[in-house]
Amino acid sequence: MAAELVVGFDLDMTLIDSRPGIAAVWEAVSQETGVFIDSQLVVSRLGPPLAVEAAHWFPEHEIPDVVARYRALYPDHAIDKVALIPGAQEAFEAVRKHGGKVIVVTAKNEPHARRHLEHLGLHADEVVGDAWAEQKGEALKARNASIFVGDHLGDIVGAKTAHAISVAVPSGPIGMDELRAAGADVVLADLADFPFWLDEHILTSRLEALEKSLQDAGSVLVAFSGGADSAFLLAAAVRALGNERVAAATAISASLAEAELAPAKQFAEDLGVQHFTPDTDEMSSEGYRANAGDRCYFCKAELLDTLGPLATQLGLAYVATGTNADDARAGFRPGIRAAHERGATTPLKDAGLTKQQIREASRRWGLATWDKPAAACLSSRIAYGLQITPARLARVDQAEAALRAALHDEGVHVTNLRVRDVGDTARVEIDKELVERVTESDTVLEAVLAAGFDTVEVDPRGFRSGSMNEMLTDPERYR
Description:
single chain, alpha/beta, Rossmann fold, DNA polymerase, domain 1, 4 domains, 6-stranded parallel beta sheet, 4-stranded parallel beta sheet, 21 helices, transferase, ATP-dependent sacrificial sulfur transferase LarE, Rossmann-like_a/b/a_fold
């Protein structure tokens, strides 16, 4: 299971340009004490704790009082003079896009750090103040941070102490060459580059985790629907294990769209792996036919009950499904539960790979499925409560094929398309930008009616994956 992403950020000169505020406070201290303080020299060497800077201007016995006075003056003189470093907001958003947690670890005292963040609208999940160098490292380690972003040599020390990746930016007093020489793992030109680096780092890390988990498995039978996820898993398994220790199985039943089988066979053949097409009989299950909210449980149970013995027969250690990290977060997935109960592995989910990352990696690997539209089984088109029958499944399959053909004849390129069976009515879901075009085309709609529906309607909201779940009044009971 992929660990939660926790990213730490330094504050001064990493997230905020605090120089004008700090200079103003030291100038106020200078006025009050009558001691000359070169505020511009002060802000040229930001990073170490406040007491370290005070020691440059005051005798040791006065430092505690100076620090206390500085902090008392700080809110009125500094907060409104400080701006965000360009890219700060985007850096936080980049972490959260990956489901991560953001912590700020700074030498500044915590109350002032929080006031800066609140004033600038930058929300951190946690703020740790009064920490420097190794102290930052201990705070990062205690929170399982794997990355620390900072601008100072002390931030590099903190990252190393925590065994975290040190990402350095030259927005403070230290240049890029010195940051590299000090041992920063990554030196970015500026903070604005962080989201791009993070995307690449996480994808690379998750692909490495996937490869290792597949190698540890030793051999797998991939439950291969022909979709983008299971196709990527199959290709990854071949890369990790070689085609001799990998096989693919596409279950043949009334719920498989006819157009899916040939491309699946070709994909497996291109990888040089054996492709099996066992029959499954989910239609014999009353729970499947009843089409309540847990229909997918019975379908997946039948699939794994078929593939498990096949894997054993082939001498393969595991059956692996293409479940990804987004599927696990979606919440309502009774099919995942059925597969888990039967010992199926989920390498993509365990590596933390999302749908978007799978498509990006597939594109880089040159897989034809990288931009293939989502293609859930035909039973997902039947409204809950309507009994699943071979005739209903065949009608949906025919309607979707006819609709695609009609759009093609009219020169319309479509990515996502569904024909939902809501009784005697076919509800068409299509790419949002095509809704009006399809609604106004009698030829296109007649193609759907010809499949055996009495009426047809176009959903004005466009295509939505899993839209049938919106009709469930109590999905929790089916988890």
